[in-house]
Predict the structure.
Amino acid sequence: MRILSALAAALLLAAPQSPGMAAPASPAPAASAVALPAAPPARLVRLVGEYGPPGEQLVVYESAGALHAHGRGLERARLVPSGGGRYTVDGVALRFEGGRLARAVAVDGLRLARRDLGDEVQARIRAAVKADPTRLRAAALAATPPIEPAPARPHDLVDLSTVDPGIRFDIRYAGTNNFMGVVLYERAGAYLQRPAAEAVGRVQRSLARQGYGLLVHDGYRPWFVTWMFWKATPDEYHHFVADPSKGSRHNRGSAVDLTLYDLKTGKVAEMPGRYDELSPRSKPDFIGGTSRQRWLRDLLRREMEAEGFTVYEEEWWHFDHKDWRQYGIGTQTFTQLAAAGR
C-alpha cells in the first residue's frame, strides 16, 4: 500500500510549553492583497474534514476551488475527481461515502472514518467534570497561587465593552457552552490591562475599515479557573491549558481570546477549527478547512500582531500582549471585580 501510516509531522499533537509560558507560533503569513476567497461549493465542503485515528489522520481540505489531501504519505496533494464521489491522486484511489457530510473515505480500499477529535476530547472532559463540579470549584478556590516577585506594574484592568462599541462579546465561561460544560464565571465580562485593551481597540478600528469586527470570548481569567482547567484536562492535552504553578497570561490580564464577525451580516466568521477546541485544528497554521476560513484566520492574526500581540502556537484565537511580563497573577473573581466597580 502506498499510503503511509503516520500523519505528517506538522499535524502531530506535540506537547510544548503551556499557554502560561508559551513559545510563539511560526511566523505569520505575509500580508496579502488577495481578496477574500469565494465560499467553495457545498459538494466540496461536505468532504472537507479529518479522517482516521489520532496521530494518523488524513486531512482533506479545499484550496483554490479544489480538494487536497495531506497526511498518511500524501503531502498537499490535489485530488482529481473521477465521478461518483471518487477521486485519484498519484495513482491512489479515494472514495467518499455519506450524505450531507461524508462519513468516511476509503483510500486504496482502507476505510478511514471521519473523526472530530475536538468533540471527542470535549465529551471526555465534560463527563469527568459532571461527576462533581461543585467540589472541583471549591478545591480551586481553596488552592494557593504560586508566589512570584513583585510585578513591575499594578493591575489596571479595563472593561473591553468600554473600548469600542463595535466589539462584540460571547463570554463562553459565563455559561455552559465551553469545553468543560459548566459555568466558571459568575457573570459575563471581558477585561484586559489598559495597554492591551487600547491595542484591541486599534485592531477593531482597523478591521472595521475592512468590513469586520472583533468577537471576544475571554480576557482576564481568575487564577482559580486556570487551576480547574488543569485538573479537568487529561495529561496528554495539557499543552492547551496553562500550568497553574506558573500562572497564565490570561491570569495577568494580558491575553485575549477572540475571533471575527462580518459587520454587514453580523455572522461570526468560520475558521478551520472551533473556539476552545482541543485538537490539531486549533493550531494557527493548521492546513485544513477551506481557503476562505484560512484567509479569515490569517487576517485576524495579522491585525493582532500589528498591534503587539503574539498568537499562541496551539490556538488560533489566543493572543498574548507584549507587556504580559509586567503584571502579576490575578486572583480576583468576577464578583469581586464588579464590587470594585470594574
Remarks:
- Residues 10 and 286 are 8 Å apart (CA to CA).
- DSSP finds seven helices and 16 strands in the chain.
- Helices lie at 42-45, 117-130, 133-142, 194-208, 223-232, 291-305, 334-339.
- The domain at 117-339 is CATH 3.30.1380.10 (Muramoyl-pentapeptide Carboxypeptidase; domain 2).
